Amino acid sequence: MVKSVQKITLSQSRDIPFNRLVLSQSNVRRIKAGVSIEELAQDIARRTLLQSLTVRPVLDDTGAETGMFEVPAGGRRYRALELLVQQKRLARTAPVPCVVRTEGLAEEDSLAENVQRAPLHPLDQFRAFHDLREKGMSEEEIAAVFFVNVQVVKQRLKLASVSSKLLDIYAEDGMTLDQLMAFTVNPGHERQEQVWEALQRSHNKDPYYIRRLLTEGAVRASDKRAQFVGIAAYEAAGGEVMRDLFQQDDGGWLQNPVLLDRLVTERLEREADSVRSEGWKWVEVGDVPYGHTYGLRYISGEPVAMSDEEVATAEALRAEYERLEQTHAEADELPEEVDQRLGEIETALAALDERAVKYDPDEVARGGVFVSIDGSGALRVERGYVRPEDEPAVAQPEPEGDTQANSIEVASSQAAEAQGTNSLAPEERDEEEEQGIKPIPDRLMTELTAYRTLALRDALGQDPDVAFVAALHALCLRLFYRYTPESCLDVDVKSVVFGNQAPGLNDSTVARAVDERHRRWSEHLPRESGELWDALFAFDPDSRDALFAHCVALSVNAVYEPWNRRPRALAHADRIAEAVGLDIAAADWSPTVDNYFGRVTKARIVQAVREAKGEPAAQLIERLKKGAMAERAQELLASSGWLPEPLRTPGWAIDTTALGSEAGQISAIGPGGEESAVTGYETAMADSEQPAEDQPAATEPLPDAAE
Question: How far apart are CA 512 and CA 707, in angstroms?
Answer without folding.
Answer: 13
